[in-house]
Amino acid sequence: MSRTAYVNGAYVPTRDALVHINDRGFQFADGVYEGIGVRRGNMVDLEAHLDRLWRSLGELSITAPMDRGPLRVVLSEVIRRNLFSDAFLYIQITRGVASRDHAIPTVDIPASLIVTCKRLNFDGVKNRALAGVTGSTQPDIRWGRCDVKSTGLLPNILAKQAARKTGAFEAILFDSDGYITEGSSTNVWVVTEGGDLITRPTTDNILAGITRARVKTITEKLKISVKEAKISIEDAKKAQEIFLTSATSCATPIIVLDGQKIGDGTVGPVAKRLIDAYFQFTDA
Ligand code: PDD
Description:
The chain has 284 residues and is of the alpha+beta class.
């Protein structure tokens, strides 16, 4: 069965889904996106993802092509038509189609909207989290507005690729002062040598991850205190635990960073509790 995508008003087989060559998303990455996990048919933290999508649009002065209500219907319909129970739902909104010019068109052009869906095995994600993954530190060469979930992801892609070349699963990005910013497509958490659970403040030029916010809520319920602070790569390598959060990795521990074991090189107790609690939340 072929997959179905939504493109500017129509549900179409994904293999036939096309966008215009003058779409500003295609030419300038002038657009934003969201990625939402679908677990057992339910969109995880849908409203928080829509809040962030509207914020990203607002920061770039792109007018949403439809309201949240109709968009919710489109998202549900894409999942339904693909018959997926566990999936990754992708929403992309670009400024629209206009003759190529860096300057933003002065006339109103309708924004483009696409929604695609692919199968994502969350049981596999959980098993990978319980086994742990490896990381490779890479310089963060991105722009100064990483709070906007822009489709301009070239630095993220290059960092991930550099990490993959070393055999690592994720790139852990560091700023010019040697402090961790985030992963190439994840937020980073550390249980320090002294036992504090910390994650970088979202005010500090990183993406405000929806999974990060969910895990924060879970820590409050579990009475695990969290500090928002920066941590250097050097200190992270001495940490008891490091883990990543994102819609597609939930809470996934890094057990080896740059070839060096983190803690004893196995999944630590804090991450284990959070993985369990996260899946209790998604599966409730
Ligand atoms: N990535 N930081 C970056 C740079 C990201 O791209 C992402 C998400 C996150 C985590 O955000 P969230 O918890 O809302 O997924 C942090 C998605 C999964 C992607 O690009 O596919």
